[in-house]
Design brief:
With about 180 residues, the chain is α+β, with helices and mostly antiparallel strands. Helix content is about 60%, strand content about 15%. It has a 4-stranded mixed sheet with strand order 1-2-3-4. Helix 1 runs antiparallel to helix 2, helix 2 packs antiparallel against helix 3 and helix 2 packs across helix 4. The protein is globular, with a radius of gyration of 18 Å. The model has no long low-confidence stretch (mean pLDDT about 90).
Length: about 180
């Protein structure tokens, strides 16, 4: 994707960051630093956004690895301010394969949400922690809720969201691909 910078490879899949992502980080820093009148709060918010986008990369890797299982290559994963996208060379024309590839990302998000939930409970945290706190408990709780919301949002039955791809695959089982 144009205007993106490479930041590494995972499982041989190039990971890139679109330049507008850095604008998001700057905006997050500015808003949180101003609101709390603290450089620490701004840096903490940027760190949390970076952790969330690490979860987004894991989600997109779920799609990419499922596609690889079916013989489809991934040109790369690009992070944008609104999320991430796995750039698959092509999608299988078999509905069950599209459904599995589409569900692989949300499956990873569900696993992450479960892990953050368990970690939050282990540190004795109520899952309604104050997001203005700069603590491990607040981070774990926030990451649980963020991953749970991303999971639900991704499963909305609207194309090109994962839920829309699942719906398209499911419907094509009954009415054909085209």
């Amino acid at each position: 994707m144009r205007w993106s910078l490479p930041i590494g490879r995972i499982f041989g899949i190039p990971i890139r960051v679109h330049f507008t992502f850095f604008l998001l980080l700057f905006l997050v820093y500015y808003v949180f630093a101003q609101r709390a009148e603290s450089v620490k709060a701004g840096l903490f918010a940027v760190l949390l956004v970076c952790i969330v986008f690490t979860c987004v990369v894991a989600h997109e890797l779920g799609h990419s690895l499922a596609a690889r299982f079916f013989g489809t290559k991934t040109r790369g994963i690009v992070l944008l301010p609104i999320g991430g996208v796995a750039l698959l060379e092509n999608l299988p024309r078999e509905p069950h394969k599209e459904i599995i590839i589409a569900l692989a990302g949300p499956f990873v998000s569900a696993l992450l949400a479960a892990c953050f939930f368990i970690a939050a409970v282990k540190v004795g945290l109520p899952l309604a922690a104050d997001p203005n706190q700069l603590s491990l408990a607040a981070v774990l709780s926030s990451l649980f809720w963020i991953n749970a919301i991303l999971l639900m949002f991704n499963l909305l039955p609207a194309f090109p969201m994962d839920g829309g791809r699942v719906l398209r695959g499911f419907l094509s089982l009954f009415v054909g691909w085209e």
